[in-house]
Amino acid sequence: MGTQQQNLTPAQATATSHSLQVCAVIDETADARSLVLDIPPDLRERFAYKPGQFLTFRVPCAGKLLTRCYSMASSPLTDERPKVTVKRVEGGRVSNRMNEVQVGDWLDVLPPAGHFCLDEHQPDDDKPLVLFGGGSGITPVFSILKSTLQRSRRPIKLIYANRDEASVIFKDELRQLAQAHPEQLQVLHALDSVQGFLTSAQVRHLLKGSAGGDYFICGPGPFMDTVERTLLELGEAAERIHVERFVSPPDPDELLAEEAAARQASLASRCESLVIVLDGQQHEIACQPGDTLLQSCKAAGLDVPSSCEEGFCGACMCIVEDGETHMTRNDVLSPRELAEGWTLACQSRPAGARVRLKFPD
C-alpha cells in the first residue's frame, strides 16, 4: 500500500471510525503480515477489546472506500497493542494493499466488534477448549488461546490446518507456548501437502479426548463446514460451537443500490412499536418507515453493537423475539442461527406493526 494513497491524517477519518498509526510490521510468512497499531491515550477505552474480536478497516482503492474486517491476533492480557494479521489473497484488492502498509502509515479503523468470544463469566476450567484454525483463520483463535493460558488452567487443544509447513502463521510462537505449557496446551497441525484437505474422519480422530468442551472455528468455508458438521454429528451441544465467518462485501455503489431498493420496498410497512432489549434494559423507540433496525436504534441514541453496517461482519447480530423482519443481505448467519431467530440489525427492517429485539449481553 503506497504511502501517498494510504496515509490518512486524523481529520480524514470517517465519523464513526478513527485514524490509527501503524507502529510495527511483522512478516509472518511469505504472504501474511501482522500490523501493530498504536492507540493514543484518549482512544484506549474505545479500542479495549475481548479476545476473538476484530477490527474493521476502511481502505481507499481506485476511488472507492472498501471495507474489510480483520481479527486481532493479539491478546488484551498479554500484548501492549492490538495486532491484526492479513494474508495476501490473489486478486484481493484490500489484502494486497494491506500487505504493502509501512510503519508510520495511518489506517482508518472502526472500534473492536464481534461475538466470537469465550464467556469470561463462566470459566469452566474443567471443560476442554478446542480451537480450530484454518490458514489466516488462526488469528482470532490465537487471541483466545493466549488469553486462556493467561487466566485459566483449562486444557486447550489447537487444531491448525494449512496448505504446507511454510504457510503456518505464528509457527515459532505456537511452539514456544506449547513448550511453556506442556500439560495445558496441545498443538496439532494438519497440512494439506501431507494429509490432504481435512476430512470428517480426521476431525473425529483429532478430537479424541476432548468431548464436552467449547469449540471455536475460523478458517475457509469448507473447512469450517466440515468441522461444525462433524461436531454436531458427534452430539456436541450447538450452543458450545462458535464459528467466525467473514466475506468480502460488494463495492459501495452496489451496496447503495441494494439499500435504496430495500428501503423503497419497506416503506409500506409501518412499525408502531419497536422494543429493544439492550444490556438488560428495555427501550421502546420510534421507527421511521424505510429505516433499518440499526438506524432506528442509533436515531434513538442507543449504543447497540455494530461495525461494518454492510451485512458481512455480524457485529450487530440480535434475536427477533417477537414480530417479523425482512433482511436485505446476509453473508454471516448460518441456517441454524436464522432458525433460532437471529438477524442483522444493519440489514433488517420491520415487516409488521410490532417488533421486539434482543442484543446479546
TrEMBL record:
Task: Name the Gene3D superfamilies on file.
Answer: 3.10.20.30, Nucleotide-binding domain of ferredoxin-NADP reductase (FNR) module, Translation factors
Q: Which ranges carry the 2Fe-2S ferredoxin-type domain?
A: 272-361
Q: Where is the FAD-binding FR-type domain?
A: 15-119
Name any one Pfam family assigned in the record.
NAD_binding_1
Molecular function (GO) terms listed?
2 iron, 2 sulfur cluster binding; flavin adenine dinucleotide binding; metal ion binding; oxidoreductase activity
Q: Which SUPFAM superfamilies match?
A: 2Fe-2S ferredoxin-like, Ferredoxin reductase-like, C-terminal NADP-linked domain, Riboflavin synthase domain-like
Descriptive protein name = 3-ketosteroid-9-alpha-hydroxylase
Q: Which species is the source of this protein? A: Pseudomonas kribbensis
